[in-house]
Amino acid sequence: MKTNLLIDFSVDKQKNNIQVKREFTAPLNKVWEAWTESQLLNQWWAPKPYKAKTKVMDFREGGYWLYSMEGPEGDVHWSRADFTSIAPLKSYSLLDAFCDESGKINESLPRAKWNVQFTESGNSTLVTIDVKFEKPSDLEGTLDMGFKEGFIAAMENLDEIFNSK
To answer: CA-CA distances (angstroms) from residue 146 to 3, 85, 96, 123, 149?
Structure first.
């Protein structure tokens, strides 16, 4: 489904940063729930044909989300998001990493600091995501893995959820 909602994906190689601004036709509380509750994240986080599956969700400062993305050929990729700050219905920050199924971080792959902000405006909610990398090679490696295409596709899955209600 095509939309005229804001979709902005920008890369600042000088600052090792990706910023995504994405507007959704849904109230703030529904968008917040979709980004913070595992049963909803499982429905949209992975780009099709992949599926997200949560193993652990402890959404609190100091907690973490441990999940996999499972492909149609049986490939499984594990990730971990450690929550560093949470301001309910406003923002949260996390440090992400690739890991194994027990949550042990793969130090050979890039990590990034995410700041996710939510702003309600009328009948829509704007989500602004800043993803900061430690060094240029981490940013480049993430982009080379298809982050832009996969993240945009995942957010289109979320549009489908909001549009079906």
So the answer is: 22, 27, 16, 31, 6
DSSP code of 47?
A: P
pLDDT in tens, 36-73: 999 999 999 999 999 999 999 999 999 999 999 999 99
Intervals of the chain under pLDDT 70 = 1-4, 165
Q: If you search the block for the tokens 């940013």, which residue do you land on? A: 139
pTM value is 0.93
For the sheet with 91-99, list strands across it: 7-12, 17-24, 124-133, 112-121, 91-99, 76-87, 64-70, 51-57
Contact 124, 26 (CB under 8 A): yes
In this structure, the number of other CB atoms found within 10 A of the CB of residue 149 comes to 12
